[in-house]
Amino acid sequence: MNTPNGIALGVLGSMAVLIVGACSPRVQAVVPLELTRQDTCAADGMILLDHAGPHAQIVWKDGQRTFYCEAREAYSIWTDPIERNRIAGFFVQDMGGLAWASHADHWIDAASALVVVDSAKFGSMGLSYVPFGRREDAEAFTVENGGELLTFGQISPEVVLHSEERRREAPGGPGLHAHAMKGMRAGE
Fold first, then answer.
1. How many domains does the chain have?
2. Considering the domain boundaries, does residue 21 fall inside one?
């Protein structure tokens, strides 16, 4: 409508949107949350604090948050381009300086992490992806436990597929939970 009334209505409508937007609460920063006994893995329902190794959390654009007992599970989701488009924040535990059985939060943005994949270290679901904030910590981990050190951008669907094949070949096979490993978990 290019009539004077149509233009006036369009301007008023735009002003109303601006006023409502200015009065709306600000979107909060996407930050990791500390783990509690109520936090369960989105993939299998396990209580995170019952299992050693690096955990992960994803904050979705719709405001929902999901936790993972294995960082590998969250990286697998990240490599799916459809799922990636829905993610607002992705956090992993920096294992540098942490004991494997520690449940300290020590969260970092997954995009800044260096990740050791396919090491000999077992988490709650078998072989783990182990994130680090510092290269020195990641390199020291690989000396002791093997694996390949990758940057966030190097974790692709092919890397995830290869890791899944390695996990299936590892002692105990897929779906092996740490509590069922009878002494294979570090710290037991």
1. 1
2. no
